[in-house]
């Protein structure tokens, strides 16, 4: 049978350190059908755009670069999808390197009956702190039980890392929506995808390697935005995508109440909460495969930033949920 045509849609902004590895892995895909890569650049100023121009020249028509004046991922993905020619869209990320059969296995999962399919998120750090982040991301005590972190077999899930889907289905669902935080576009997309009756499948055979943040400041900003995004999903959809955001929200609430009681002369609750939290962080650090101190620190940042992000998003109120339309 004829292999369906595929368009890889890749939104980027200032990805100089990773773009060469990302594009090498995508252009080296072993796939029997037509394959193109559409990169939506959000106005990179770090030299990424010059590298993209060079890659497009060398790729001989297999790679196109378009502008994404909104800069954020959701409108970039929608713009790339709008000009894509493939029957199947494969969503890609500028911090991820893809196995040579990534596209082929994604298409195979769709052929086997899935409406959307993706693999596990496999974090691999490049620096000592990055390795700590990767170890923390692999722990259910940090990231929760989301199956796209831990699945060992093909199974139905609520959301998936990146993913592949048919172009017609993508536009029928409405593409990606953009929130003020600039985060949670995948979780919101798959929430609406499943609400439409379509299925989402994680298949560990679809392999990629994600490069996590390499410093505490950028990790904090990332997870603060993740938490805000989940609160914005609550305002937009009337519910959280899952119960998982409640855990870091509960941690922040307990720390806040404990701090107030401590100031009033009753410090015991704060001591209990901090001791229990640190025990969890210690377990993540000693059972992970990263450097213990960096793993402890990364897990603490992820818990606290995510929980505070949820609080900030809830306090901000419904606000405008910007819907990024394909153009």
Characterization of the model:
There is one protein chain. Mean pLDDT is 91; it is low at 323-327. Helix 1 (19-27) runs parallel beside helix 2 (48-59), helix 10 runs parallel beside helix 13 (292-316) and helix 12 crosses helix 13. The strands form two sheets. The chain has an eight-stranded mixed beta sheet. The two termini are 32 Å apart. Strand 2 (35-41), helix 2 (48-59) and strand 3 (63-67) form a beta-alpha-beta unit. The chain folds into two domains: 6-214, Spore Coat Polysaccharide Biosynthesis Protein SpsA, Chain A (Alpha-Beta Complex), CATH 3.90.550; 232-316, no CATH class. It has helices at residues 19-27, 48-59, 73-83, 102-111, 128-137, 140-143, 147-150, 167-173, 185-195, 216-237, 246-263, 268-287, 292-316, and strands spanning 6-12, 35-41, 63-67, 88-91, 96-98, 116-118, 155-156, 164-166, 200-202, 208-210. The chain has 13 helices and ten strands. The chain is of the alpha/beta class and 327 residues long.
How do the strands and helices of this protein lay out in sequence?
Elements lengths: L5 E7 L6 H9 L7 E7 L6 H12 L3 E5 L5 H11 L4 E4 L4 E3 L3 H10 L4 E3 L9 H10 L2 H4 L3 H4 L4 E2 L7 E3 H7 L11 H11 L4 E3 L5 E3 L5 H22 L8 H18 L4 H20 L4 H25 L11
Parallel strand pairs: 1-2, 1-4, 2-3, 6-9
Antiparallel strand pairs: 4-8, 5-10, 6-8, 7-9
Which features does this protein show?
327 residues; alpha/beta; Spore Coat Polysaccharide Biosynthesis Protein SpsA, Chain A; eight-stranded mixed sheet; 50% helix; disordered C terminus
Can I get a quick summary?
This protein has 327 residues and is α/β, with parallel strands linked by helices. It contains 13 helices and ten strands.
């Amino acid at each position: 049978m004829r292999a369906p045509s595929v368009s890889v849609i890749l939104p980027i902004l200032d990805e100089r350190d990773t773009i060469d590895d990302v594009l090498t892995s995508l252009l080296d895909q072993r796939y029997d059908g037509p394959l193109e890569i559409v990169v939506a650049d959000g106005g990179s100023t770090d030299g990424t755009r010059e590298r993209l121009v060079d890659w497009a020249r060398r790729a001989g028509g297999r790679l196109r670069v378009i502008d994404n004046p909104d800069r954020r991922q959701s409108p970039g993905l929608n713009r790339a999808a709008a000009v894509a020619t493939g029957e199947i869209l494969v969503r890609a990320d500028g911090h991820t390197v893809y196995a040579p059969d990534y596209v082929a296995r994604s298409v195979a999962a769709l052929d086997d009956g899935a409406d959307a399919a993706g693999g596990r998120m496999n974090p691999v750090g490049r620096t000592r702190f990055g390795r700590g982040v990767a170890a923390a991301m692999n722990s259910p005590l940090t990231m929760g039980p989301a199956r796209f972190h831990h699945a060992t077999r093909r199974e139905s899930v609520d959301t998936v890392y990146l993913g592949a889907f048919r172009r017609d289905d993508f536009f029928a669902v409405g593409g990606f929506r953009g929130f003020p935080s600039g985060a949670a576009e995948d979780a919101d997309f798959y929430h609406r995808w499943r609400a439409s009756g379509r299925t989402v499948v994680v298949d560990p055979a679809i392999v990629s390697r994600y490069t996590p943040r390499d410093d505490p400041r950028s990790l904090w900003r990332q997870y603060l935005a993740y938490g805000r995004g989940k609160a914005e999903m609550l305002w937009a959809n009337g519910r959280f995508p899952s119960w998982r955001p409640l855990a870091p929200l509960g941690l922040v609430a307990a720390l806040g109440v404990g701090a107030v009681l401590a100031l009033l002369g009753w410090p015991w609750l704060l001591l209990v909460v901090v001791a229990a939290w640190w025990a969890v962080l210690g377990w993540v650090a000693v059972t992970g495969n990263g450097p213990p101190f960096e793993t402890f620190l990364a897990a603490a940042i992820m818990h606290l930033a995510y929980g505070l992000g949820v609080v900030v998003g809830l306090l901000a109120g419904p606000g405008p949920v910007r819907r990024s339309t394909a153009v």
